[in-house]
Design brief:
Belongs to the zinc-containing alcohol dehydrogenase family. The chain starts with a strand and ends with a strand. Helix 4 crosses helix 5 and helix 4 crosses helix 10. It has two domains: 185 residues, Quinone Oxidoreductase, Chain A, domain 1 (Alpha-Beta Complex), CATH 3.90.180.10; 131 residues, Rossmann fold (3-Layer(aba) Sandwich), CATH 3.40.50.720. A hairpin with a 2-residue loop joins strand 4 and strand 5. It contains eleven helices and 18 strands. The strands form four sheets. Strands 3, 7, 8, 9, 10, 17 and 18 form a seven-stranded mixed sheet that branches. It is 27% helix and 29% strand. The longest helix has 14 residues. It is α/β, with parallel strands linked by helices and 346 residues long.
Length: 346
């Protein structure tokens, strides 16, 4: 086992993020990656603000970050990877042995070791560090001229492509996206790239509505607009598919009234702990309600889409901050009224 002392972005407790020394260890079977950039995700922000992300609670300091791009420093000969090669990092480490993994549902693996997660103890460190050790299967080679600023969006885009695939064929469909933060905005782009004829976004934030339009939305509406809501409810519902990306209780419960009979709702947002849900309407309209969690092979698809410029993620990029200003980067990322995606530059 080899070691290297590096600088890493570590969360100790709520509102305590530090750039500090960290020891990276790697074996001959692992890839040592020199990290170029990392995107701050919503779960990173939750650890910063609350010391937890959902049911995953910090019990010890943890390196954050799972949206990564970097350059291979060392790779085992059997990996097919070469030193100097740029790769996008798939932060998933499923066991690949359980029944769910064997059935192709690696994203649902109960033993998943996802980078930058406090689900288990000891926690799984993330990749916001100058160097990180990886399983070769986590490294997806990029084209030689790939733009790291663009490719670091692969992980959140993979989440959105997985959600789009959960909805089925979108060609010619009318789509509603509730919540136009980074994930909702990438869902907009992914739905349009998948053939949707109309994609309308809702968000209470004017900045997010502008962001939705920049990402290609047909229209962006304040969900408190009751006149528009009444129009969407006419004839049993206007939309074929709704992607609920806000996690807000009001958005989750209202989606059923906006979706036509035999339509589909895909739930991505995880904010609300409980919801007063219109089960009766869901039943009599025979609406399919599907959860969407992380991704499987969609990560490779996301890399391909970004390299080939099938979508443009740059309207989401609000700022780039150096590793030594990591605490400031998290303060900015937590200010959703002003910022969308913040990238940390290593």
């Amino acid at each position: 086992m080899q070691q290297k002392e590096v600088k890493a972005v570590t969360v100790h407790e709520a509102h305590d993020v530090r750039c500090e020394n960290h020891v990276v260890e790697w074996s001959d079977e692992e890839v040592l990656l020199k990290v170029e950039r990392g995107g701050i995700c919503g779960s990173d922000i939750h650890y910063y603000l609350h010391g937890r992300a959902g049911m995953s609670v910090l019990k010890a300091p943890m390196v954050l970050g799972h949206e990564l791009i970097g350059i291979v420093e060392y790779a085992p000969a059997t990996s097919g990877l070469l030193a100097g090669q740029r790769v996008a990092v798939n932060p998933s480490r499923p066991c690949r042995k359980c029944q769910l993994c064997e059935q192709g549902h690696q994203n649902l693996c109960r033993s998943m070791r996802f980078m930058g997660s406090a689900q288990f103890f000891p926690h799984v460190n993330g990749g916001f560090a100058q160097y990180v050790a990886l399983d070769p299967q986590q490294c997806v080679p990029c084209q030689p001229d790939a733009d790291p600023k663009r490719l670091v969006f692969a992980e959140p885009l993979a989440v959105c492509i997985h959600a789009v695939r959960q909805a089925g064929d979108l060609v010619g469909k009318r789509v509603l996206v509730t919540g136009a933060g980074p994930i909702g905005s990438l869902v907009i782009a992914a739905a349009l790239a998948s053939g949707a004829s109309e994609v309308i976004a809702t968000d209470i934030s004017e900045r997010c509505r502008h962001l939705a339009l920049a990402m290609g939305a047909t229209a962006a509406i304040d969900p408190r607009d009751e006149h528009q809501a009444r129009l969407w409810r006419e004839e049993g519902g206007y939309f074929d598919v709704c992607f609920e990306a806000s996690g807000a209780a009001a958005a989750i419960s209202s989606a059923v009234s906006f979706v036509r009979p035999a339509g589909t709702i895909v739930q991505l947002g995880m904010g609300a702990a409980s919801v007063d849900y219109p089960v009766g309407s869901l039943l009599v309209k025979e609406i399919q309600l599907k959860g969407s969690f992380r991704f499987v092979d969609e990560f490779n698809i996301a890399v391909n889409w970004l390299e080939n410029r099938k979508i443009d993620p740059f309207p989401l990029l609000s700022a780039e901050v150096g590793i030594h200003e990591a605490a400031q980067a998290f303060e900015m990322a937590a200010d959703k009224a002003r910022y969308a995606k913040i990238q940390i530059v290593f």
